[in-house]
Design goal:
Elements: H1 2-26, E1 30-32, E2 38-41, E3 50-54, E4 63-68, H2 71-78, E5 85-86, E6 97-104, E7 108-114, E8 120-126, E9 130-132
Parallel strand pairs: 1-9, 4-5
Antiparallel strand pairs: 1-2, 2-6, 3-4, 3-8, 6-7, 7-8
Length: 133
């Protein structure tokens, strides 16, 4: 009987770890390429998400760019955000890209939106849901 309890405990612990790790993986929304420093959000993610790019590293400042899985949010923010509102980075204009400039404190990362014409605009994203790969 003790052997059965031990096996059951191990199975429960393994299941719990698997559940926690799968949840953590699902939380990654955006990726930053280590070599190029280019930021991307893959299309067709299963998780719901919204990432707002702020004018300053403060969530009360002007929204400059928005990425969201919510169609209403993209529609609403597209009229407010100077850099646009998108479902993912593949939907940005051809030639446009976002470059990681560095961490800004514990809560934000500093990014640069670079247009195909070479124009640049700095904005700040919350670090939540981002990973450097």
């Amino acid at each position: 009987m003790n052997l059965n309890i031990l096996i059951m405990n191990k199975a429960l612990i393994f299941s719990l770890l698997l559940f926690i790790s799968s949840g953590a993986i699902a939380q990654v929304i955006g990726k930053i390429d280590k070599k190029t420093k280019e930021f991307s959000i893959a299309p067709d993610q299963k998780a719901e998400y919204t990432l707002i790019g702020y004018q300053l590293p403060n969530t009360t400042t002007k929204h400059l760019i928005c990425f969201s899985s919510n169609e209403n949010m993209v529609r609403e923010e597209s009229g407010k955000c100077v850099l646009g509102a998108y479902f993912d980075t593949d939907r940005m204009k051809v030639g446009d890209k976002i470059i990681f400039l560095g961490n800004y404190g514990k809560l934000f990362v500093k990014m640069s939106y670079v247009s195909g014409a070479g124009n640049k605009m700095t904005f700040y994203l919350s670090r939540t849901g981002l990973v450097l790969k």
